[in-house]
Amino acid sequence: MRTRVALLVALCASAARAQLPAPAPPPHDSGLPLPAYWERGVSRPFVAATLELGWTYVRPEFAVGFGRPFHRWMGLDLKPIVTTTGAGFYAGLRGSVPFFDLRAGVRHFEAFEHRLLPEQEHHGRAELDTPRGPEPEPYSVESEVSGSIAVPGGGPFWLAGVYYLSNVKQGYHLYEESLKVIVDPPWVFRLRSGYVWQFGPHDALRLGIAEEILENPGRPGYVIRAGVIGGAALGDNLDVQLSLLPVIHSPDSLGLAGADFGHLGVRWRWATAGPRRRRR
User: Fold this and answer.
1) Which of 39, 166, 177, 253 is deepest in the core (most CB within 10 A)?
2) Integer Cα distance of 41 and 136 in angstroms
3) Which fold has domain 2-270?
């Protein structure tokens, strides 16, 4: 079963390669539950690493903290961001307990191709493909809080985020590479909610639906996206992640460049003095 799931994800990624824009990965998880493997063990100082390999991105993450990594802990998050469209970093503080997660930090991303856009009420995809404005070098001071409720067979989850964007020239709008929206800085607000079903051996398969709303007070209207999320545990510290949320409503016409394809790859986790594996 695990081999079939991995093959299916690989085939979906190959089919999407010619259609989807290269994502700039957001510095948050999708809201899906973590494997029970990380619940075992004792609280301790630790160094942890996560590596996600996607079809157009590499997403490493490093954490230094105290507790049970990926389960109940607090510490420092460091995340280089590398995609085919740009590069950057995220650094911040994070605290996590079962069904609740809080983080706050600073993110910087420099795009290879996209430029700042002159202010106007409506933007089209062609403006992104034809760079003319100054190069963007924004910084985002941001905070996200997320949680979930466990019920038999799955449960609902939610995420709320506040982002303050700086270092953007006046008179221009910014295509925010992580949130996939065009904004008039400085403030952006985000709310995501959804429901995940778990099934299969040891609840290793996860499939759900999600909807999110983004508001930028500097521009009229909202951006609304909705779609599917999913995942499959291939082992105690290896799984695949999927999130596909196309645009339902927006003041702009960005096509797939405005959709959230934040996860589409294989994720591996490691931590010092990790818990023992189950006996088969």
Assistant:
1) 177
2) 45
3) Porin (2.40.160)
70 phi and psi angles, rounded to 5 deg: 65, 10
Q: Are 138 and 108 in contact (CB under 8 A)?
A: yes
Of the candidates 46, 67, 21, 35, which has an alpha carbon nearest to the alpha carbon of residue 241? Answer: 35
DSSP labels, 131-152: --SPPP--EEEEEEEEEE--BT
Look up the pTM and report it: 0.84
Element (H, E) at 11: helix 2-16
26 within 8 A of 179, measured Cβ to Cβ: yes
Question: The tokens of 132 are what?
Answer: 């003319």
Query: Residue ranges of the domains in the chain?
Result: 2-270
The pLDDT of residue 128 is above 80: yes
Q: Please, what sign has the CA dihedral across residues 216, 79, 9, 192?
A: negative
pLDDT digits (tens, 9 = 90+) for 132-180: 889 898 999 999 999 999 898 999 999 999 999 999 999 999 999 989 9
- 131: β partners: none
Could you tell me the two tokens for 127? 């403006």
Amino acid at 122: H
Cβ count near 16 (within 10 Å): 15
Instruction: Kindly report the backbone phi and psi dihedral angles of residue 76, in degrees, each rounded to the nearest multiple of 5, phi listed first.
Output: -110, 135
For the residues of 183-218, what is the DSSP string, one character each? E-SSEEEEEEEEEEEEESGGG-EEEEEEEEEEE-TT
* Confidence bin at 108 (pLDDT 50/70/90): very high
Question: Whole-angstrom Cα distance, residue 207 to residue 205?
Answer: 7
Longest CA span, the chain: 62
DSSP state letters, 78-129? EEEEEESSEEEEEEEEEEEETTEEEEEEEEEEEESS---EE--S--BHHHHH
For residue 164, what are its two tokens? 């303050």
